TrEMBL record:
Pfam families: PBDC1. Residues 39-162 form the Polysaccharide biosynthesis domain. This is Polysaccharide biosynthesis domain-containing protein. It comes from the Eukaryota. The lineage of its organism: Eukaryota, Metazoa, Chordata, Craniata, Vertebrata. One of its GO terms (cellular component) is cytoplasm. InterPro entries: PBDC1-like_dom_sf, PBDC1_metazoa/fungi, Polysacc_synth_dom.
Length: 170
C-alpha cells in the first residue's frame, strides 16, 4: 500500500519521543486546540497508521477468524439489527454522511460510548471492501462505525478477496 503521508514525514518518521508527544497531544480535550492545522495533520497521520495496520492484518490473516474488539459479537448484532439492509461490500457515502444517516447512526454509536475505547475517534474506512485504502476509496468515519462495518465485512466474507489476493501473491 502506498503511503500518502510518507512525503509529509508520516508517523514512521517520528522518533520515540516525538511519537509520545503526538500521543499525549491527541489525548487532550478538543477545546484545548481550536482549529490547529498541526493537530489535524496528527489526526490524519494517526488515522492513516490505523488503516495501514488494519489492511496489513486482513491481508495476512483470514478475516473470518479476526476479532477486532472484546465486544465484536455485541457490535455485530446491534449493527445488523439497526442496519439490516446496509450494503457493506461497497458503501455509499450517503449511508454514513447524509443528515438522515447521521441521525440514524448517532444513537447506534452512542450505545458503545462506555464499551469501546475511542469509539468516536476519526478513522479511515474503505468504501469498496475489495480495494486498498486510497484517496478515492476512503472516507472518514467514527471508530465504532469502522468496527461495525469491518466486523460485518469479516463475518460476511467481504474482506476475503483481500486475504486471497495477498495469499496468492506470496
Amino acid at each position: 500500500m502506498a503511503a500518502p503521508l510518507d512525503g509529509m514525514g508520516g508517523l514512521g518518521s517520528l522518533g520515540a519521543t516525538e511519537a509520545l508527544s503526538v500521543a499525549q497531544a491527541l489525548s487532550l480535550p478538543a477545546e484545548a486546540y481550536g482549529n490547529d492545522p498541526n493537530l489535524e495533520m496528527m489526526w490524519a497521520m494517526k488515522a492513516y497508521q490505523h488503516a495501514e495496520v488494519y489492511f496489513n492484518l486482513i491481508s495476512s490473516v483470514d478475516p473470518g477468524i479476526l476479532k477486532l474488539t472484546r465486544t465484536d459479537d455485541v457490535i455485530y448484532k446491534a449493527f445488523r439489527e439497526e442496519f439490516p439492509e446496509l450494503q457493506i461490500a461497497i458503501l455509499d457515502p450517503e449511508e454514513l454522511k447524509s443528515p438522515a444517516a447521521k441521525e440514524k447512526w448517532r444513537p447506534f454509536c452512542m450505545q458503545f460510548e462506555t464499551q469501546v475505547e475511542d469509539f468516536n475517534y476519526g478513522t479511515l474506512l474503505r468504501l469498496d471492501s475489495s480495494k486498498d485504502y486510497s484517496e478515492e476509496n476512503s472516507i472518514f468515519a467514527t471508530r465504532i462505525q469502522f468496527y461495525a462495518i469491518e466486523i460485518a465485512r469479516n463475518r460476511e466474507g467481504c474482506n476475503n478477496v483481500i486475504f486471497r489476493r495477498k495469499s496468492a501473491s506470496s
